Amino acid sequence: MSGARDEIEDLIALMARLPGLGPRSARRAVLHLIRKRAGLMAPLAQMMGHVADTARECAVCGNISTGEICDICADPRRATGELCVVEDVADLWAMERGHAFKGRYHVLGGTLSALEAVGPEELGIPKLLDRIGAEGVQEVILALNATVEGQTTAHYIAETLEPTGVRITSLAQGVPIGGELDYLDDGTISAALRARRSF
Amino acid sequence: MSGARDEIEDLIALMARLPGLGPRSARRAVLHLIRKRAGLMAPLAQMMGHVADTARECAVCGNISTGEICDICADPRRATGELCVVEDVADLWAMERGHAFKGRYHVLGGTLSALEAVGPEELGIPKLLDRIGAEGVQEVILALNATVEGQTTAHYIAETLEPTGVRITSLAQGVPIGGELDYLDDGTISAALRARRSF
User: Fold this and answer.
1) Which segments does the entry list as coiled coil (chains A, B) (predicted)?
2) What letter would DSSP give residue B118?
3) How much is the average pLDDT of A59-73?
4) Looking at beta carbons, which residues of chain B come within 8 Å of A44?
């Protein structure tokens, strides 16, 4: 087989690297795309290429953005003095879907892990300290996953921030033990934000 | 939210239209892509755009190809006088993975369906009749799914081809009742091809 089949096999191999798709479902997806190549495949390729070219991490908070600074950091109405610390951009999106938080974010990009050599520097914790002074932050809300790794990281951040005197809270009621933020419904996230308690 | 978020939401909405992906898994996939935008997202977008531009149905058999005629129809070594009729390009790919069939294909693109107004014309059955004369076909192998729709279509084709005097066979041993071709392992497909019987 040459030509067309090779290119389609390459496309299937790339698609199979997406989370949730294996070789078989990638093959089904590619066939579906080829059948709908004008209505779905071409616009998807174009949008994907566009986002690949323009998307980057916000220099301030780590959110996904097309500019140097993301929409949330660029919006003066979000300078409420509240800073919400999340593990991941998916968690930031989950918080935004809840429409309950009006402040800004700090995306860690993971949790502390000795095994994977992820330390405070990799998570941007020194940058978080800088932001507290520079942006006049009065409250840091630790919205980390209720997993062992998330809570360990939350404790570390709380300890690190203690000398600054900033108020440190964490999402409380509603986050189930062992659960992950991105899997919660919007109502639960709102409730947890309203019932936040001192850490 | 404007700009970046809108474009990313559009991308998620397009991804969610793929079979096997819902809104949540599409969001995860897009975040994964954005994280790997240089190594995965950009090449995937490029390859997808390339295939969207170049892929088309082979004018002879209905296989996916980048030219007017697919690799199999263009290969003189595959002019064995055997023609394998399949419902779908996915089934053709499944047959090819079995490496047992050396002839050419005819892709119906579906099964006869009164409800969905799919008749012999839509499935290219008149074209199949033409090919039997034009290509000197001696045997037509009906490799349709072992479903009610597949077998109804197989019976219709067998009846239609009877006046031509061509030998009509069907995949036999190994195809489980109610099963679909694309889900079989390669060995079962090979065994079924070897044990084919007169229809």
Assistant:
1) none
2) B
3) 88
4) 11, 14-15, 48
